[in-house]
Amino acid sequence: MAFLRIGSAEIDGGDHRMGTSKDSATSGAWAEDHGWICPGSEMFLKYHKERVDVLRKVPLFSGLGLRHLDLLARAVREKNIKAGAVLARQGKRERDFMLILDGTARVERDGHALAHLKAGDFCGEMSLIDGEPRSATVLAESPCVLLLLDHRSFRKSLDSIPELQRKILITLCQRLRDADAALAAVN
Fold it and tell me: Which residues are CB-neighbours of 103 under 8 A, at least 6 positions away?
């Protein structure tokens, strides 16, 4: 069993990649309000069962059976991120699907803010599905706790969990509709 800490992370060198956990400070009010962590706890998702319970609460994974949630929980890894870290860089080929457990992030394209992400939101699925470079940059606005699913695990999950394919397709369609509506509002 892995014991995972919640907190901020330092960025490795100057390359703006996600770093490793160094302390136990948290902005976990949302997570505490939603029962994801115990008040005063330095741990986040201490046990496998906690990962399953968290994944069950995420709209993208809600409705999946226990067997599928268990597969996902085994495939994800937790990452603590420092405010200001670049989670994804527009134009780069990166290999992680990211689910925000705690914290906030900003999505930008060509330096213009497109969206704000919060706990329960995710990003990175488009590049993993089509193999193309990232369509936007995602920056941590606050310290974040992420669940990451790498390329191989993401593909394996899509292949073995048909319900997940359907949910991602629905989410992508909704994002496209939202983008169309935003574009229409500008014009």
Answer: 27, 81, 83, 118, 119, 140, 141, 142, 143, 144, 145
Instruction: Identify any residues that bridge with 98 across adjacent strands, giving them in sequence order.
Output: 123, 148
Domains of the chain by residue range: 29-186
- pLDDT for 113 beyond 60: yes
Alpha carbon separation from 177 to 135, 171, 174, 181, 183 (Å, rounded): 17, 10, 5, 6, 10
Q: Does domain 29-186 have CATH number 2.60.120.10?
A: yes
What pTM does this model have?
0.67
Secondary structure of residue 29 in the 3-state scheme = helix
Tell me: pLDDT of 9 over 80. no
Q: At what angle do helices 151-160 and 66-75 cross, to 10 degrees?
A: 170
Q: Which residue has the higher pLDDT, 167 or 84?
A: 84
Rounded Cα–Cα distance for residues 113 and 51 (Å)? 31
pLDDT at 20 over 50: no
Count the Cβ atoms, other than its own, within 10 Å of residue 79.
21
Q: What is the pLDDT of residue 46?
A: 65
